[in-house]
Amino acid sequence: MSQRGSGARRLFPGASEICVVLPRDGAALGPHGERALAGFRELLYRERAEIEAECGVPARFVDTDPGDGPRWLIGPAACNPAISTYPRRGEGQAGVWLDREREVLITDAPDLFGVIEAISLIRTLVMTGQDAVFVSECRDLDEAVERITREVGWTYPSFALRGLDWEAICARHREEVARASDPLAAMQTWLAELQDAHTWVKPSPAPVPLPYEVWVEGDTAVFTRVPQGTAAWDAGVRPGDVLLDEDTAGWWARTGSTPHAKPLMTGYRLLSTPVGVERTLAARRADGQRVEWREVGSIDPPYPLVTWTRLPSGSGYLRIEAWRADRDVDAAIDAAFADLAGTDRLIVDLRGNGGGNLALALSFRDRFLHEPTLLGSIRFSTGPGELSPPAPITGEPADERRRWHGAVRFLTDPMTYSASEDALLGLQGLPHVRVVGEPSGGGSGRPRMLRLLPGMTLTVSTALTYDRHGRCIEGAGIPVDHYVVPDRFSHGAEDTVLLAADRTW
């Protein structure tokens, strides 16, 4: 469990380059396969730095197998015919294979989700020195505890940044997990010490957040956002009302988060619910009345993910709730830009946007670039306590027709997280950009995904991002130009953050 390493192991020692052979036949994946595969390919292109850190050499993307030299063939095999030319043990399973003699790395699975799981196993293959590793659940709780211990110890990039001793953390929790009546909760409490919402043990399938925001402090949970049209709103619940009958103290202990985001992140975890599962909630209103209502977990909130309007001042206002490529968020942003084209001032509200599709968020970022721009840098963990050299993060301006040409103000809070921070990274500090509100949540992410026991999945951060001034985003968040604390707990209060942003032109 040592946090020190003897140097990152490389897949292809002595190589100067690796050819990454991409899947290209999306039709083989079914009716929506072409779109899904196009998004996957775009993500791979944009995350070249991660691929190069994994492989230890520069990467070149190709569509056909060159036949010699180090190469990585990415499935599904139905979309990448070259994979079938390399017979291997366990063919057809989700996994990763390394043929050292022929210098071929293969990640394959029947579908794209399985391929993503298989890619997460490359580090396991490097760590163990094996020739093949398959996506699999642990045989028992002891193996799950050992998997967490080894994989987090090998992968987590922030031990030094946060001053954490993984051996000591494991010593405090391993036996507690073994004795626990609820191992999932005990595992979550263990990993909460890492202060990272990306590094956690999640129920599987993953629950989805209910459409509210709740601030947890001590044993109290207070609503801070209750959108109109939701079940809680219809029951009479408003910001400032108190959520009742929930284990707030338990969820506080189980929630990994940066300190400044933890009150809201705990509320997010507490209110997350499996899709299709009904849940009864209760609240105490300001008048002392107790109200109850029922909620069903849904992947789609009861309001649009993208909304826009023109403010009385004439400034445009655009709110984006989440980065969902499967819900036409990009097309909605196109429509918003078209409707707001008559103004040269735009306020983009990313408060509460906890992330989602990274490629979509980066595409949005590029809409605000006027020229090729160095935005910051990224480093990846390469072994226990080790980080890759900084790789530059650069951005290219979007097509002229999709670009915003005027000034822009971004609104952020501690729940502006993950992909939303990637959307903002490097925009802050540009002459036409200001960030208003509170610092974002501080999560660099790029998490691996590893199965544990049935219904449990481990995710582990792999990266640290930095802005162009060298400030690390992990743990600190995107800095703001104008710090404004909102009145979270008063129904009908003015939006002081929005008003402040509209005065900064």
Distance between the termini: 52 Å
**CATH fourth-tier homologous superfamily of the largest domain:** 2-enoyl-CoA Hydratase, Chain A, domain 1
Top CATH class of the largest domain: Alpha Beta
**Main sheet characteristics:** 6 strands, mixed
How many extended strands?
Answer: 26
Q: Name the shape in a single word.
A: globular
Whole-number total of structural domains: 3
The proportion of strand residues reads 15-25%
The CATH topology of the largest domain turns out to be 2-enoyl-CoA Hydratase, Chain A, domain 1
Order of strands in the sheet with most strands: 2-1-3-5-4-6
Q: Helix/strand/pairing class, anyone? A: alpha/beta
Stretches with pLDDT under 50, minimum 5 residues? 1-7
GO cellular component, one term: outer membrane-bounded periplasmic space
InterPro entries: ClpP/crotonase-like_dom_sf (IPR029045), Tail-specific_protease (IPR005151)
Pfam family, one: Peptidase_S41
GO molecular function: endopeptidase activity; serine-type peptidase activity
Describe the structure in your own words.
Helices cover 26% and strands 24% of the residues. It contains 15 helices and 26 strands. Strands 2-1-3-5-4-6 form a six-stranded mixed sheet. Strands 15-16-17-21-22-26 form a six-stranded mixed sheet. Strands 9-10-11-13-14 form a five-stranded antiparallel sheet. Helix 10 packs across helix 11. The model is unreliable at 1-7 (pLDDT under 50). One of its GO terms (molecular function) is endopeptidase activity. Residues 276-485 form the Tail specific protease domain. This is Peptidase S41.
